[in-house]
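S.,

Sequence below, as promised.
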Amino acid sequence: MTNLEKIKLFNGEPSFKLNKRPFYSIVIACYESEHIGRLLESIYLQDMKDDIEVIISDDCSSNQDYLNIVAEYFDKISIKCVKTDYNCTCPGNTREKGTHYAEGVWLVFADHDDEFIPHKLKGIKEDIIKSNEKYLCVANFHNVDPRTGQVVDEMIQTRNWCHAKFFNMDNLWKPFNVHFKKDLLSHEDIYITTFTSCCLYKVKGKDEPYYIDDFCYNWNVEPNSLSRRDYDGREFIEVFYKDYLDATGTVYLQALKDKLISPLFAFKNCGATLLYLYFYGVALMQKRPDDYLDINITHARNFLKKVKATFKTHGKPLTNDNLVQLTKEYNNLMWIYIKERASKSTGFFQPFISFKDWLNLLDN
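The prediction came back faster than expected:
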């Protein structure tokens, strides 16, 4: 049986067995992944053959020509190939399938058109072992324009992406039953970040992963990627506003119910979520005053109702003034940080309505 024939079985069997448990399990969600060669080559160039397994998780690709490229690496890297039960078009679903076959100590996610910086994963391994971190490590990565190869942005100690993150399987992923939210079309990385931050709070009493000050990954942002596509002139965050909410504030409320986090931790993070929703909302309403998606106001209103139903202050119902006061307790740097982060999704804006008036608008 040829390597290509073995791959097309999609049975999760490794192309060759390692002599020990791999340090890294790298899960790659794929769909007609014609550029996967550069990612596999970058993994091969880590020179860590006994320390890495790769799991190709295919989302029922119609055209499987890319598997010919995978076959070229079947003898160079220990590769498992699996396939989703149906074409789900949700990156989280496809990654989730791959995690079920991961046997490594640390779980890593890579996009099929990205690449690791050669030889960097060895240093990351040494740093992790030296630190004695047991849960979650976060390194740096580059945002790269694949057309020019130029670094567009340096992503340092970022929390919202799964890129350059290392999740411990034995102490974090499995014990806390971490899963990607099923059928979430976008913001699946933020969902995992939010949930694992709650897990860290449970075990450490604080939301602090171990940061590794080194760049190990290049994120090649293709023009037709989900976050860069044109949605009839609408911004990505306007179309997927509800997904963002489901990946942040809704997770904090559920984590509070599940007793993963304290009421104060949940309250502060729900307040931050409302602040993001406010900045996103007013920026997008300014851009499209005549045809802004009003359903997003409904989503924000429903979340505000849930927050008010969950929290009380001194035994009394939560008011908009309480929420305004909470955000005032954030220092100016936090306000600036959240506004700048929001503007990366919406472009520059100047709020035309105050946070309190926006909350009052949601109450109407």
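The mean pLDDT is 92.

Coffee later?
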